[in-house]
Amino acid sequence: MATLSLENIRKTYGKTEVVHGISLDVEEGEFVVIVGPSGCGKSTLLRMVAGLETITAGELRIGGERVNEREPMDRDIAMVFQNYALYPHMTVFENMAYGLRIARTPRAEIDRRVRQAAEMLQLEPYLARRPRELSGGQRQRVAMGRAIVRKPRVFLFDEPLSNLDAKLRVQMRLEIRALQRELGVTALYVTHDQVEAMTLADRMVVMNGGHAEQIGAPLEVYRAP
Ligand code: ADP
Ligand code: ADP
């Protein structure tokens, strides 16, 4: 049974269909990258999986259960956004702990998980700071830490490195790979950057005009014709 299963997922805005029946199974521990030009429907697809957009038609299953109508908090997923979406008035620790607080996780367990993630992401020195006192790369690490501490079944990434400069983008790409190996995460990762997709993907979905044009291992997808 696939950890995440999309069966003929569609999205229509008014009379315009922007996602045309996408089917995809993501296995446990698999890192799937959706790549394609701006406007092809990547982020709409990801937002439907996250529960931030309604699904017009099709079946979405997480851990074998249909979740089409479930709230984002009840889907066993965590999403990392391009703009970090950190709470400016909270410290790094509080930002990372927030989701666990809402889920009523015991304080000692919150403390343990946040410190563990902070160590993994080299954020220990910054736990008492606020987001505005951090660099872009550090903010993106906090956003990742906030997802990691929840131990979700599926991680969703929406162009997480797009706001970083080129050098940091390379560095963060390597860090995400290290995290993949360390945690064995199951992920759906959206980017328009082909190098990023090639580096991170176990499998790639190449989208164009709302269709999945190709699905396969990076070398299969980019093999010379
Ligand atoms: P991508 O993430 O690949 O850049 P999007 O998923 O953001 O693409 O958008 C796919 C298409 O859907 C685009 O043509 C976009 O204009 C359209 N779209 C996205 N959101 C809405 C909306 N709320 N209402 C109408 N059209 C939308
Ligand atoms: P990005 O590709 O960086 O996510 P977009 O321009 O696609 O940025 O989308 C920004 C926001 O505007 C999203 O919430 C999207 O749903 C909405 N949006 C995009 N295209 C349209 C559209 N044609 N009509 C209405 N809302 C749209």
UniProtKB/TrEMBL annotation:
* Highest taxon of the lineage: Bacteria
Q: Name one GO molecular function term.
A: ATP binding
Q: Does the keyword Hydrolase belong to this entry? A: no
Alphabetically sorted, this entry's keywords are: ATP-binding, Cell inner membrane, Cell membrane, Membrane, Nucleotide-binding, Sugar transport, Translocase, Transport
Asked if the record carries the keyword Ion transport, the reply is: no
Domain ABC transporter residue range list? 4-225
The similarity comment for this entry is: Belongs to the ABC transporter superfamily.
Task: Please identify the protein, giving its name as recorded.
Answer: Sn-glycerol-3-phosphate ABC transporter ATP-binding protein UgpC
Species this protein is from: Halodurantibacterium flavum
Q: Which stretch of the intact protein is present?
A: 1 to 225 of 339
